Amino acid sequence: MNDQAVATFQQNLRGRLVRQTDADYDAVRALYNGMIDKRPRLIARAVDAADVITAVDFAREQGLLLAIRGGGHNGPGLGSCDDGLVIDLSMMKSVRVDPAKRTVRVEPGCTSADVDHATHAFGLAVPFGIVGSTGVAGLTLGGGTGYLTRKFGLTIDNLLEADVVLADGRFVTASSKENPDLFWALRGGGGNFGVVTSFLFQAHPVKMVFAGPIFWDAAKDGRTVMRAFRDFLPNAPEDLGTFVGLKTVPPTDPFPKEHWNKRACAVISCFNGSEAEGRKAMAPLLKDLPAPLFDWTGMMPMPAINGLFDPFFPKGLQWYWKGDFVKSLTDQTIDVHIAQAAQAPSPFCLMHLYPIDGAVRRVAKDATAWPTRDATYSMVIAGIDPDPNNADALKKWGRAYWKAVHPFNLEGAYVNFMMDDETEGRVQSSYGENYTRLAAIKAKYDPKNLFRVNQNIKPA
Ligand SMILES: Cc1cc2nc3c(=O)[nH]c(=O)nc-3n(C[C@H](O)[C@H](O)[C@H](O)COP(=O)(O)OP(=O)(O)OC[C@H]3O[C@@H](n4cnc5c(N)ncnc54)[C@H](O)[C@@H]3O)c2cc1C
Fold it and tell me: CB 3.0-4.6 Å disulfide test: which of 38, 135, 345, 386 passes with 393?
């Protein structure tokens, strides 16, 4: 790669090419996870599909390692790479809502908060995750679980169409009618097949919700709450999006000072409807449970619950992730969870269990690349702390916790909840019976594995 080639590349871009010598290089390359420190050779800040085509062609022709960055939230930092080219899509943030069709066209630099903001004005929402700053692109391509999942399915179950720049620079649309094999693979197969430059989603009527967290003392009541949650869930209405977690009461306002640093068991919910209906939906869970430390459920706009945790998780914290799909949550596993969570080295650490049920189960296992629709939960263990000196302690805790609960779980995990220190076999296990088909589609669309900075599917 000579200077002339780089200069020509810059001329052909409408967006900016950031080099290692630029004053803002460190700011532009910084990822959400402060534990990851990658130094790309070049960062192309794409502003349209033409820029993406130019950048994909440049990487392929120059033999450069290529990473694609949407929201930059990925745990192992798969939105960046060392010494290669990053296509940074974060400038591509347009959202267009079609209220008549209840669809939303979204550019790949959007966070879920960006899309929530746009759809909320029309009384609509797309199922995304539980933190507003998460990138829509990576979340969608990996599957997408969140508050609206029990009722409306995974994010991919609401994807109608995607525009994609392929490894050879061609631009195609993938939908159930056009390139259906690619459309199948994009729905869960991650960034393995090309660069998505536009998503078209189905949205749903959601405006004000009855939502918020309820915290109990984990040492005293965690076991009772987790068992009750497990038993309540199969009969809970699907309008109630909810998950259970183990965490620590943050030692900060607005949390009551007398509970700071207490190990806690939390149920965090979002009911799409009125307060009266929401309370009725929660009543069978709460009726026999002990008094919580605090109950902060109430009416709020949908974007408020999606952004509720954002202030506690600013960019730059240290994150170490471990995931699993859970087959069934036994009494014995609950005890292991509570014992392991109690060892967390920082009050930021957490474990969440996101239900896999309702609308997710109504889609066939082979209808999209995302196969584990018969799990009961998607589990995430996240070691989190602001101090880089605690990185090793976070890893040690996350690995030990995972090792203790994994024997009770399924082999694979949600690919968006894995670091890059998993074995190659873990990615295969995560796709199960769908892996062979994914590998064949990879061979068709990206035979030389240009798109390999991801949870990689090897071309067959
Ligand atoms: C605080 C936090 C909360 C989270 N909560 C949830 C949640 O509630 N539900 C959930 O499902 N997940 C959740 N996640 C996980 C999240 O889905 C992943 O981190 C996801 O990778 C983020 O996408 P991104 O675009 O921000 O990531 P990036 O780091 O930009 O990219 C992630 C991967 O996607 C690929 N990619 C990104 N954009 C494109 C594109 N346009 N075309 C092709 N490939 C692309 C990249 O190459 C990379 O491999 C959360 C993560 C964090 C950090």
Answer: 345
**Pairwise CA distance, residues 268 & 155, whole Å:** 19
What is the SS3 assignment for 106?
strand
Q: Give yes or no for residue 45 CB within 6 A of ligand 1.
A: no
Residue 351 CA to residue 227 CA, distance in Å, equals: 16
CA–CA gap between residue 84 and residue 101 (Å, rounded): 41
SS3 of 92, please?
coil
Query: How, if at all, do strands 16-19 and 42-45 pair?
Result: antiparallel
Q: What is the pLDDT of residues 249-280, one digit of tens each?
A: 999 889 999 999 999 999 999 999 999 999 99
Please state the three-class secondary structure of 133-146 as a single string. Answer: CCEHHHHHHHCCCC
Q: How much is the CA Rg of the chain, to the nearest whole Å?
A: 22
Confidence of residue 246 (pLDDT cuts 50, 70, 90): very high
Rounded to 5°, the CA angle 30-36-40 comes to 60
Helix residue ranges, H only, 170-254: 180-186, 218-232
Counting ligand 1 atoms within 8 A of each CB, the residue from 33, 51, 73, 166 with the most, and so the one to mutate, is 73
Check if the beta carbon of residue 379 is closer than 8 Å to that of residue 352.
yes
Ligand 1 site, residue 146, Cβ cutoff 6 A: yes
Contact predicate 87/69, CB 8 Å: yes
Task: Name the β-bridge partners of 87.
Answer: 44, 68
* Strand arrangement of the beta sheet that strand 85-88 belongs to: 16-19, 42-45, 85-88, 66-69
- The reply to whether ligand 1 has any atom less than 6 angstroms from the CB of 72 is yes
430 lines ligand 1 (CB under 6 A): no
Determine if residue 125 is left, alpha or beta; phi over 0 gives left, psi from -120 to 50 gives alpha, anything else beta. Answer: beta
CA distance 448 to 35: 30
Distance from the Cα of residue 300 to its chain's centroid = 23
Residue found under tokens 């693979």:
185
The alpha-helical segments, DSSP class H, found in 2-154 are 3-12, 25-29, 49-62, 112-120, 136-142, 149-152
- pLDDT, tens only, 311-321: 999 999 999 99
Q: What is the pLDDT of residues 299-340, one digit of tens each?
A: 999 999 999 999 999 999 999 999 999 999 999 999 999 999
Q: In which residue are the tokens 């929401």 written?
A: 278
Decide: 243 and 352 in contact? Cβ < 8 Å.
Answer: yes
Angle at 258 between CA 254 and CA 260, to 5 degrees: 60
